[in-house]
């Protein structure tokens, strides 16, 4: 067997993508693993029965690998520390829900179940079914402001409109706040401003003398 000399990888609960790493290495070393488990000079019969991976499980591992690869790609992008990623969150989330975890006719029951679990978990966590909250999510508004995602093609038309309506509402509110501040400043009399400046100057002089 002309296989790379790699050790097997154990999954780790604290590493998101370690299951994929484990599956990839198992598939790479499948025939080496099978040979070792079949060799009674290396593996006892009792141990082999416990460690043996049936063909059905090998098939499930192979079928899950492409799904896990998409999840790894998504988590790698969204957990990036060197680039801004908030505007990617919802485009990636909807891509996983609507494309990469959709059940196909050739999916085995375990694979279909895994996809359904991922879709449900993401939908609940990201509140994609709660339209009222979804359109006001900062991450979704960031997507609308990002030239790469500004058309929000992953949303329905009414949802896209609601997002931009919310953005316009926030902008209008911000303009009102700035106008109010400008009006307050304009109403401040020159005498009040002069008095304030003199007071600040006297306070500064007093503080300097105390320090001396």
Automatic annotation (TrEMBL):
GO terms for biological process: regulation of transcription by RNA polymerase II. It comes from Knipowitschia caucasica. This is Uncharacterized protein. GO terms for cellular component: nucleus.
